[in-house]
## 1
Amino acid sequence: MKPNGGWNNQVNVGQYIWDIVNPNPDRWLEGLRLVHHLMQTHANDAELLKRDLRTLGSMYHNLMEDYPRAAWFWRNAGANHEGVADCYWKMGCKEMAVELLKQLGNDDTRHGTIIKLWADMGELDTALRLAEAKAKDGRPEVAYLAAGEACRKAGQFKRALDFFQRVLAVQQNDTQTRQNDFKQTYERAKASIEAIQVYEMLDLAKVRDGTYSSDSYGYSGQVFVDVTVQRGKITDVKVPRHTERQFYGALDNTTKQILDKQSVKDIDTFSSATITSEAIVNAAAKALASGMK
């Protein structure tokens, strides 16, 4: 149960997980054990048990990237949302993911998560159709940002730039109550435009040996990235500083992809921390560009 009064992460379990567990990878297993214990404690309380199952689904998905377990806990909690569809996709069951997404219909998520998932599955036309519908429903800045990222994922950079420019053209009005979200979306679009503009000129073979640094706008502020290049190859990617708190596996996952692919293109942003992943990719692109001969 939620305690009376304001935020207190030493009393409320959900707030403890958000503030203490999620931002600290060395406490993730501890957090899982805690919720498993609560699930046993709540065995005779259907409502609390369902909440524990939902929480475990989120933790296995966001923290551990254990998609079979995440799907199992979510489904047993009666959940039927885009997170379950993402589990199906990550487990190689595209048909099940598509079936569930079709049931969900239009994207009513805060950050365009359903649009992103359709794009991740290679269904760009569907993603853009949902983005246009979301724009008409009153969240054009979120819709166009998601559409731009979908086009970037598909390698359609000119089209992506057009959508990002449409984000910058949106005027905030009195009906848009999420002022922080609006500012964040605007800054993300600017950062993505800046990164894409260096894509065409970027040639790893022309980057001088050394370590190059840059930063880009994340969820909570600037995310700083160091990229080391030796003899035309990326040898290391690090995130030395950031203020992100709900970054989940994005730091390790995204930097590893850049290193493995030897590129900042076609990077799969981490589904539960898309904004942090985007910031790492954008900062890495600018860092590499700064080392060009």
Note: DSSP finds 13 helices and three strands in the chain.
## 2
Amino acid sequence: MDMDWDFDDEGVQKLTSPGEVITSATQFMRGHGTFVEDNDVVASLSGTIERVNKLVSVRALRTRYHGEVGDLVVGRITEVQAARWKVDVNGHQDALLRLSSVNLPGGVQRRKLESDELEMRKFFEEGDLLVAEVQPTHGDGALNLHTRSLKYGKLRNGQLVTVSPVLIRRRNSHFCSLPCGVDLILGMNGYIWIAKHVAENQKEGEEGFDAEAVYSNKNDDIDMETRAAISRVSNLIHVFARRSIPITDAILAEAYDWAVQQETSPSDLLRADVGDTMVAMVTALA
């Protein structure tokens, strides 16, 4: 069988399906999502082909999140237990956030007291959204999280959008600000948080730690213009996700500018014809 895949450039990704021959097993090594048959590397699932040096693997298009130490994730509290919270991070099982891994009133370095454990729902309760960092995992594969940095913690004033984790690429910073006045948190687990922009000088610093403000469940007043911007960005993410296009702040900024220039409402972006036109224009500029 002729093999059409060109591996001259590392990082080039192409779609494949189960049973399709990817390349020769005499030249490349098989990785996850592949098997060897008749000296060929063959795909065992649908996804994108990835090459690192001589290792060829297939990353599934629809998959659960498999965490790595240092990943930034967005999650939702599912259960409050003794001295810890369980957090949905789009994985095969809930992650764990321990009481010792969060900032508490009185300073980040102080010891956790029994009274803190009795008041855990004052910090996080079921349904709360948060951004955290992945720590070393348990033996059973459960992820450990921490929110000890003030850039992590409870999320307010925004909207959660879920995409496949394969669409989020690792980058230097997963905190992004768009020119339209919207902040993004691109969770490696496929959970994306869209919120109104907060200037750096308005964010809480460790010296001025205010537990009541940081752990508040009350949203700020959000003007209609900002609400429309959040809705437009949310729908743009849905448009790209449906077409399996990786989500970045750069492509969202380009798409947002196009939507504004075309005077396209947030709801119209979800129309198939509008979405196809927008994707074609934006990807041509990339």
Note: Residues 14-60 form a domain with the OB fold (Dihydrolipoamide Acetyltransferase, E2P) fold (CATH 2.40.50.100).
## 3
Amino acid sequence: MHLGNLVALMGLIHFHLGGHQVISLIQIGGSDQWGNITAGIELIHKLNTLEEKKSIPNEGEPKRVRHENAFGLTIPLLTTSSGLKFGKSAGNAVWLDSNLTSPYELYQFFMKTSDQDIARYLPIFTLLSLEKINEIVTEHNKNPEKMLGQTVLASEVTELVHGSNEVKLAQELTAFFFGMKKGQNISDSNITSEYILKSFKNDSRLIRAKAEVIREMRITDLAVLTGACSSKSEAFRLIKNNGLYWNNTRVTSDKWMPSLDADYLDNGKFAIIRKGKTDFFILSVF
């Protein structure tokens, strides 16, 4: 829609809502909606002037209420340190509805917050005291690589929206993907295949495959199937250089064929293939 038409449409909506339902109208929006809001106020004033000249409404037309007061209020947009706003048009929208943004995705969204935004986001998105926030920011700035600020921010927001149990699950899954120590296994946590599917249902890193298709596939074929590697030769090189992992255990042979009964998680329902330190892919079996 052309910008001029959009402004006119917003103005008419503003007038219509006010004219038929309330006497005084306040429209609230982000600061980027200032033009639309003022257009609505100006249109109300003009149409009120026309209404005053009408002594009798047309047949079937409801009598409009005159608006002595029409107000507009804008709120500063929430942006990143780079000036990018939060929203669908910017491609970084998150939802409170778990069906649209899973608790894990919400947790990860705030874990990706830049160091420059930590001090600004903590008082906006959490209920922590300013004294506590200052302590966290000070400690975070000493060792930004430990991501204390991001962890607190992600945990607090996820708990406010989804509860403490979802925070624990998100942290366990994050630890498995990015920081689980040698000897630890996801089977020791509360993570299930259902939770994995829900958390990554809109993520291209989740690959679904039939059991009969993958039952006799070697690790190099599975790496290509999930997208971890572009070819079997790449998978071979990764294994040779100790860079390919299966459920957080380093793969040592390109001839290895994972067993559905013994090497997959949650009774053969899924597995995690990781390339390097952070690139992971989920293989869901049905």
Note: The chain has three domains: 3-75, 103-179, 206-285.
